[in-house]
């Protein structure tokens, strides 16, 4: 049987349309069904990508074949003998890392937005022809993807248009593709090739510096998981890794894949040639890269059992995102300090920022990180004005849970064991070689995670682990940080107004008879002290209301965290290279 064959072409870049075909050599005898995913792994929300399919038709042996729509994302072709081809257009105008985007400057797509899956044939290998847009204007376009070039005639050259190949549908939708006139650099980390691609104009981009810094971060991570072999994780399926970044004025975000990541960042965050200062923005960019790269192990290979295999037609529930997103968030900054990209002082400041951020949300007293993980589909990913009161982030609190566990294990074993050992054990048992041909793919369950913590640490951590992940009590971080020479002291929280009775959507018109001009609210409120009161005028819909206003400090605790002179040895084992 021939591989399932896809072809994709930017049909009209100005109209944001990709033309796509899929040909199935041996369609189901009762009529082949096709579907498009409703969500993309890494972003736990139903997005209904099929709504962007504009025109669709089927044919076999040059003749039209009847095609019936079954639901919002599925079609069934009438029974045919021999190869069946579906042709359709996809509207691509979503400038994010999650879908597809096409205009005259570049094209980007995730397979989950453009490639229909032949139902029941998910395990078939696929070939993909990626075509250049027609016209002289596009003569300089290249292709960036971690997808492997097909061998032989018609096979794409590295970074070129032409034929690519994948082992199955899961791989097809796990290699996003960027095409255009991008800027590209490369480096080797522990011997493995990494490409760094930037789309969008960035004057004076210091690409060498970006590559130098990423190399340090990638090597620190590879050595964390594979201290002996120093083997990069993606070598089970790909020879190289691709960081692809879309640069805009204020973009931020990333999505992890098995051998690449799609990122968005702000232009001002990228370093310029000849300017060596380490800006906050550049640290943020490196933190994002570090986060997505860590996912190459944690969630792309070590996976929750519910994700093996991914079921992309509906929500897939797991209580474990605190491990896959929270621990990844813990290690993203930790890897920056361990690889020497930020100082110990800067790292400790980042910890304080995360901690204070979690304390500001009242939702932490109502929702556990396990519950937040499970309900990600309808709560974390669909936040409304009530979110701070009802939701805790499995990213930020999850990273503090990782910190609490790491420090507990280190303190109780005198640094002989740590969270690093837990991650390595997860990797060895569930992740290593996940995509190697013939590998037995299995995910990890909550019970297995709990058992592994005890086994690897030699401690009894069940009760602590449960209270951290299933409870809503405050984290005792100050006491945990102390043995590492890090002092956390409570500081006065920021002053805030208690705006009694003001609701989402209200228009605040005046405070004490003074109009609230755009951008002037903070200045206006700064004139008041704790305990002061004022009157405010508020429009709800089209009715004017007069409401009382009292000023008070935020009830949440706030901490200032500083590394002290002592206990450097304990700290060095944790934060040092
Ligand atoms: Zn993540």
UniProtKB/TrEMBL annotation:
Domain Peptidase M61 N-terminal: residue ranges: 5-181
Classification via InterPro entries: PDZ_sf, Peptidase_M4/M1_CTD_sf, Peptidase_M61, Peptidase_M61_catalytic, Peptidase_M61_N
Pfam families xrefs: Peptidase_M61 (PF05299), Peptidase_M61_N (PF17899)
Domain Peptidase M61 catalytic: 285-401
Protein name: PDZ/DHR/GLGF:peptidase M61
Organism: Cupriavidus basilensis OR16
């Amino acid at each position: 049987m021939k591989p399932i064959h896809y072809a994709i072409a930017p049909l009209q870049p100005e109209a944001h349309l990709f033309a796509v075909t899929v040909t199935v050599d041996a369609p189901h005898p009762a009529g082949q069904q096709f579907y498009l995913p409703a969500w993309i792994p890494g972003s736990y929300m139903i997005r209904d990508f099929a709504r962007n399919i504009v025109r669709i038709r089927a044919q076999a042996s040059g003749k039209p074949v009847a095609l019936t729509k079954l639901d919002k994302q599925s079609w069934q072709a009438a029974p045919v003998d021999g190869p069946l081809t579906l042709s359709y257009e996809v509207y691509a105008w979503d400038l994010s890392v999650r879908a597809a985007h096409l205009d005259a400057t570049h094209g980007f797509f995730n397979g989950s937005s453009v490639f229909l899956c032949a139902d029941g044939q998910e395990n078939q290998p696929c070939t993909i022809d990626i075509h250049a847009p027609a016209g002289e204007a596009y003569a300089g376009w290249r292709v960036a993807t971690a997808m492997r070039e097909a061998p032989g005639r018609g096979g794409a050259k590295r970074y070129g248009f032409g034929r690519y190949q994948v082992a199955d549908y899961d791989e097809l939708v796990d290699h996003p593709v960027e095409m255009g006139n991008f800027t590209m650099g490369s480096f080797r980390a522990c011997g493995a090739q990494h490409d760094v691609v930037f789309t969008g104009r960035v004057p004076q981009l210091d690409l060498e510096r970006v590559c130098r810094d990423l190399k340090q971060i990638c090597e620190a991570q590879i050595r964390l998981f594979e201290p002996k072999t120093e083997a990069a994780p993606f070598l089970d399926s790909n020879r190289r890794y691709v960081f692809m970044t879309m640069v805009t004025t204020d973009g931020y975000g990333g999505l992890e894949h098995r051998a690449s990541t799609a990122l968005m960042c702000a232009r001002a965050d990228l370093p310029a040639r000849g300017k060596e200062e380490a800006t906050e923005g550049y640290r943020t960019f490196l933190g994002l890269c570090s986060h997505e790269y860590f996912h190459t192990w944690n969630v792309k290979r070590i996976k929750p059992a519910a994700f093996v295999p991914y079921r992309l037609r509906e929500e897939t529930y797991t209580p474990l995102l605190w491990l896959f997103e929270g621990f990844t968030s813990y290690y993203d900054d930790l890897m920056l300090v361990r690889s020497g990209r930020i100082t110990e002082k800067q790292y400790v400041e980042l910890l304080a920022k995360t901690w204070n951020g979690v304390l500001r949300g009242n939702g932490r007293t109502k929702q556990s990180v396990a519950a937040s993980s499970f309900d990600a589909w309808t709560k974390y990913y669909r936040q409304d004005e009530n979110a701070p009161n009802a939701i805790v982030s499995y990213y930020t609190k999850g990273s503090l849970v990782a910190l609490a566990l790491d420090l507990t294990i280190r303190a109780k074993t005198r640094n002989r064991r740590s969270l690093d050992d837990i991650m390595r054990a997860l990797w060895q048992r569930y992740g290593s070689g996940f995509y190697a041909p013939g590998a037995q793919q299995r995910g990890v369950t909550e019970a297995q995670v709990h058992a592994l913590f005890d086994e690897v640490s030699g401690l009894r951590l069940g009760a602590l682990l449960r209270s951290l992940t299933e409870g809503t009590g405050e984290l005792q971080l100050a006491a945990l940080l102390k043995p590492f020479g890090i002092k956390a002291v409570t500081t006065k929280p920021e002053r805030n107004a208690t705006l009694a009775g003001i609701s989402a959507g209200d228009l605040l018109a005046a405070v004490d008879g003074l109009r609230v001009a755009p951008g002037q609210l903070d200045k206006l409120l700064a004139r008041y002290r704790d305990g002061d009161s004022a009157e405010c005028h508020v429009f709800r819909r089209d009715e004017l209301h007069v409401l009382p206003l009292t000023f008070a400090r935020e009830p949440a605790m706030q901490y200032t965290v500083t590394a002290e002179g002592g206990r450097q040895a304990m700290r060095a084992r944790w934060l040092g290279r």
